[in-house]
Structures are given as C-alpha cells and as structure tokens.
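Please review the protein record below. Tell me whether the encoded fold seems credible here:
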Amino acid sequence: MFQLMNIPEADQLLMDLKDPSLQGEQAKHSYEQILTGLVEEGIIELDNQQITIDPQIYNLLTGCKLSSAITRLDLRATDGKSSVTYGFLSGMQLVEWVWEPAQDQALLTSFDEFEKMFQVIGNRIELPDPLASNVNTQSQDTIRTPMQVETLQRLSALAVDSALEMFESILQEDRHLDQALMQTLAKGFATLEKWGQYEVYTRGQEGQPQTIYFIGSIHGNWLFLEGEENGLFTAFKITEEELVQSLFLLTTRSLSVLSGV
C-alpha cells in the first residue's frame, strides 16, 4: 500500500518486515498474493488494473505521504518480542504505523493529539522495574557520564547472556567513561531485558536523523544521547517516564519549524 501511494518510506518499511518473499524473484508472486488478499478484505477494489482504495485507508495513507516529519521506534526484547513503530507527523494529521512480527500484522492508527500518541508509545515501551537497590533517591540528572560511540557499539554487539566481566572489560577501556559508574552500566547490559532506538527526521532536510538509544534492565534503565563532540554519547540513568519525556522533547524540538503540531 505504501508503494502504491508512492510514500517515501515504503522501501524502508519493506526492510523492517524482514520477509524474504518480498525480495528478489519471489517478490512478484508475493505481491500478487497480497493484492488478492487486499481485494478479498475489501481494502481495495481492482478493475482492469485500476486500483480503488477504501476511503478510510486512503485518508490514513495520505496522512503518511504528506507528513513533514517522521519518527521511528525500533523496540526489542530478550523474550523475542519486537516491534517497529513509525509516526507520520504534520500540522493536519498524526498517523502511526506499527509492525509486530509475532502477530504478523501492521496496524495504522490516527491520533488527534500529540500527547495521546506518546502515551501509547510509552505504554508500548514498558521498561522493566529496577530492583529497589538500584533506584536512585537523588535527581536522575546527576547520574550521567560521557561514553565513546564505539563503546556502545561493542556492548550492543555482545550476546545478552555474555558474562558480566566481558561488559566490564569493554567499559574499562573507555577513557571518557566515569569509572565510578562502570559496574552499574555493566550490570545493566548484562541483565538486559529491553533495548531500542528512536529517530526523528524531517523530509527534505539534509543530515542524519536525531537519535536516542536506550536499554532497560532490573539494574537500571539508561538513555544514550549524541553529545556535542563527535564520537561521544552522554549516558543518563533514567526512569521509564523520563525516557518517554526525552523522546517527546526530541520530537517537539525537531518539529518546532512546523506549525500546528
């Protein structure tokens, strides 16, 4: 449907589906089956190769096509569950596209309010509750440290069930890291339950999307934000509420040039 509507993100959505049947020589046969299914479900009508789309679906897809800004949330968990959520944002309409492989389905939803959309996103993320011994009684803003981008990449590449010492070894090599937080961070990665990344970009503007990375663990939840210096992140120990607030603020800051959002 995204390809039929010439929506710019169509190719990326296909990659997110991770379906081999939609690639290469198998694609033509798969598309014919998909087209037949869409007709049977009443989503489209096909008459002499002319396609008519259901008005409600067309309205949602038009909202995706005409959006000025896009968000993308890639959420993963150690239990195998995952989802990819796109937000198509404009001054007229907010449309969310969610793909959940376990259900083998995509869901399009329209929102009237920006805040409501992020409430749903927050419910979807649902980070683990930290152990009582890992709850910081001070301001969470006081727990932060610089970290090399390479360090986060190496930590993320390790298997989730790797030994704690392997995570500690990588963190010890980072000369920018506050070593007083090394063990806390290492335990967070060693007991990882959820992790993901959130991106925001505006169509027609050059440059990389603004990105936040995060992890969730019983030993604490962490957010990783690109710093002012190239090659560095700032790692913050956060609550789930603070993570959602950070995603919200990153998005509203990116949308400050758009009126009515």
Summary: The first strand starts at residue 44 and ends at 47.
